[in-house]
Amino acid sequence: MKLLAFIPIRLTLLLILGILIGSVLPVDTWYLLLSTLLFFLFLTLIFVFQKRSHSVLFGVIASVTVINLGMFCFSAAQPINHQDHYSNIINEERAIWTLKIKETLKSNLYSTRYFALVTMIDQQPASGTILLTLPQDSSALNVDDEIQVFSKPNPISPSLNPHQFDYKNYLKTLGVYDQLSIKDNQFIRITNPKKTLTGFASGIRSHIISQLQKEHFGTDELGVIQALLLGQRDNISEETYSNYQKAGAVHILAVSGLHIGILLLLIQFILRPLRNLPHGRTVILISSVIFLWIFALVAGLSASIVRATTMFSFVAYALFLNRPSNTFNILALSILFILLFIDPNLIFQVGFQMSYAAVFSILWIFPMLRDVWFPKNRAIRYFWQLLCVSIAAQLGVLPISLFYFHQFPGLFFISNLIIVPALGLILGTGIIVIFLSLLNALPLQLAWFYNTVIAQMNGLIGWIAQQEQFIFSAIPFDSIQLILSFLILILGIELYQSTNFKRTVFFLISIISFQGYTLYETNLAHNKNEVLVLHQTKNSIIFNRNGQRLSVLSNQTNNLNYLLSNYTTAERIKTINKDSLKNSYSINDTAVVVIDSSGVYQKTPSPIILLTNSPKINIERLALTLQPIEIIADGSNYKSYVDRWKTTCIQYKIPFHYTGEKGAYYLK
User: Fold this and answer.
1) Tens digits of per-residue pLDDT, 430-448?
2) Is there a contact between 610 and 595 (Cβ–Cβ < 8 Å)?
3) Residue 7 contacts by C-beta under 8 Å, 6 or more apart in sequence?
4) For the stretch 490-508, what's the b/e string if a residue is b when 16 or more beta carbons lie within 10 angstroms of its beta carbon?
5) Which residues cross the membrane (predicted)?
6) HSE on the CB side for 90, CA within 13 Å?
7) Nearest CA-CA partner of 232 in 262, 247, 210, 261
């Protein structure tokens, strides 16, 4: 593998290994700092006395040093490990929090959410980021707004059902551990808050959006324009976004390296005549970098945009130096090392993983695919190379996509072959549209033309998404399969580069391992039986799983799609049956009594009791009469009722399980 011959790439992989070890084996930050310094000192002594850096001992110590550095970076990057973090300061249940709005999150039907920086607690300086939640009808807060609130933090709820998206763990990777839920009249705005560059960028973007809303754009078209040019995806309809996902073109809707790279090529092409002037190349470099960062500012300066703009600023410099292609390879992965050194939590973000998996696979696989065929016609050669880039990138992100999203768009190459070549024109025209709109000088004809272009793109994506026979979804894919699939990919490319007996054997072993593990998991799924009470607000749900058959017991089955899809995919379920919830069941010779709002129940001794729909019953009498093994309350009950039942169960020493706190209950 030629890329591994470069030292920056080796160091990056070792740093990633250290970060991953640090995430599962937490060690005190000061110990890690001390050990890292000692390893660096030891490494220096070996280099000074041996006077060579190619010895086995030097290589081993260097590897251990970088791994230890990765562990230290991860520990030091966790906000909760800092002494001034709010969790290490707050003593009382309630305190006066001074918050600065950092980011506005996508709202839902019930609430508006923000990331807020904690600046002070009871007039004591503090740090950290907290999730701030307000009711939907509250007055809006903007980035950089500062408020004071008298409240107490609540821990973010973990995933309550099996295979459900773990929002708590996701926020933890962003350094967010708690939330504040307040109402409109429970906070005070601080006048004349200090402005930041992020807030300035957010204000510019809001002004641009308000100007575009005055123009003659369709609703769906305007939503896509905002996503393409401003990084704002909140106004895209669910249907449109779903179509882009199914067509394998959702990356087009997120301002990322693709957009920044195309813009850089477009700028370089427009400014190319300046090369003939004195210092023309320097002017092109400075102009390119300035324009890229202006675009990043307009697009909101999100973490992904800043990463991509930083990357291509260095690429612009490499173009200025006119270095060979290997420089780009080393440059891309050197920046990866620097980014992970600064913020190791990036490695756990899906967008970051997919972005660099695509970059790595393009750098490695694209040259091999490109050399398979060299068409003489320039147009055919251009589309062939574009197809090779698309296939190379898709190979790199495929395992990650299957792991997180469990689907594969079979027609991804069509959307990429048609839309990506036109993306430069779309972005360039869009920038002109924004500029003229800000001047209130956007011609109606240009607005109509651009709206038509976006509408045609949406139509093409919609047509591709309708070809459901080419969309492979609900694919079971776990972490072991993720690792094995990358192993197959790496060994397969190695075998293609140089065929020999040893590489052939390793490649075949990797395939057999993947198939063997998949068959093993399928066999486990075929023989697995379980009954569980799930949590859903205002509803009662029981899953009765028998092998690869699932019976869903609930009186309301309309809002179960997300629960069913996640569970059935991960557990390899083949058939699903739905039935209403009955009053009693028998599971492994244990009676399960279901008590609903009617309060009527069978007097079965020593049962497991499931309370649903807030029954008005005397829980003490129930405990004395039936002497239940355990009492379960699901999400269909009022919280006040649940608290009262919990208190009584503690008094009578009866195990109590509330699905809203402890998650799904497994009936054994």
Assistant:
1) 999 999 998 888 899 999 9
2) yes
3) none
4) bbebebeeeeeeebeeebe
5) 7-25, 31-49, 56-77, 249-271, 283-299, 328-348, 354-370, 382-405, 411-439, 446-465, 471-492, 504-520
6) 24
7) 210
